[in-house]
Amino acid sequence: MKIDKEIKEKTYIKLIQYIWTKCDVVALRKRHDQHSNITGQVLDIILKTENYSVQDIVNNYSNDFLNVISNQFLYNKDIFDGEFCTRYGNGLEDIDKQYRKKFLSNCIDRVYYDVTTKQWLDKYKDSIIYQKEHIYDDFIPNKKIHQDTTYFLKLTKPLKKEILDVNEIYSWCFPFMLEDIAFFKNGYCFLDSVAHEELCFIYCKDEEEYEYLKSIGIEFVEDKFVPVSRDELYYVDYEQKD
C-alpha cells in the first residue's frame, strides 16, 4: 500500500521499532557512476589545482564547499574545453553557466558518495548476506550497463541503531548514503522505497496491521486496507544467493 506522506521523526522511530519485531533483513542500493571516466578526469584536475586529497573533499563536503568548487572551476578550460566534455557543447563558451556549475557539483557529489558508501559497506561487510547486481542492455549492441547493486544485510544491533538515527525514510538517498531502504522477512518485502522519487510502499498483512500503522502516524493513500496476495509481493531469494 502506498504511503501518502513521508515517514519521519517519531513516526519513523515507531515504524522501525515495529519492523524489528517482524523483519530480519534490510536492503540498500548503491548507484554506480555511468560516467566514471569523466568524473575521474575532473577530479584529477581539481585535486592537482588545489592540492586536495580525496579525503579533504569528503571532510569538507557541504553546500558551501560545493559552491566554492563550482565557482572556482567554472571557467576552467582543462575541464570544459577538454576532449571528454565535447559531448556537452563545443567548448567553454558554448556550455551554459548553470549547467557547468551543476556538472562540477555532480562530480563532487559522486566522489563523496562513492567514498562514504564504500566506508559504510566496509563497516557492515560481515552483515551482508547477498548482493544483487542490476545490469541492463545499452543502446549500443553487446554493451551492458551496470546500473546499481542492492545489498541485503542481516539486522544486527549496530545496524539497527544506525537505521534509527537516520530519522527519515527519504534520507536514504544520493549523495549522502546508500539508497532506497527496504525491509524483508524470509525473502518477502514488508517495506520498499524509492527515496529520490519520494515513493514508499508498505505491504500490510491484514487490516489489524494496517490500523496499527495508521495509529502510529503512517498516512496511506488508500483510506482502507487493500489485501495483497502472496504472489503479488516483492520477493528476493537472497538465501540461495544465485
What do these coordinates show?
The structure is a single chain. The protein is an alpha+beta fold. It folds into 2 domains: 9-24 and 155-232, no CATH class; 36-116, no CATH class. Helix content is 39%, strand content 19%. It is built from 8 helices and 6 strands. It has a 6-stranded antiparallel beta sheet, with no helix packed on it. Helix 3 crosses helix 6 (97-123) and helix 4 (63-72) crosses helix 6. The two termini are 29 Å apart. The model has no long low-confidence stretch (mean pLDDT 90).
What is the secondary structure topology, with strand pairs?
Elements: H1 9-20, E1 25-31, H2 36-50, H3 54-60, H4 63-72, H5 77-80, H6 97-123, E2 128-137, E3 144-154, H7 157-166, E4 179-185, E5 188-194, E6 199-202, H8 207-215
Helix pairs in contact: 2-6, 3-6, 4-6
Put the structure in a nutshell.
The protein is an alpha+beta fold. The chain has helices at 9-20, 36-50, 54-60, 63-72, 77-80, 97-123, 157-166, 207-215, and strands spanning 25-31, 128-137, 144-154, 179-185, 188-194, 199-202.
Biggest sheet: strands, sense, closure?
A: 6 strands, antiparallel
What is the number of strand segments? 6
Counting DSSP H or I runs of 4 or more residues, the number of helices is 8
Alpha-carbon Rg, integer: 21 Å
Which percent band covers the strand fraction? 15-25%
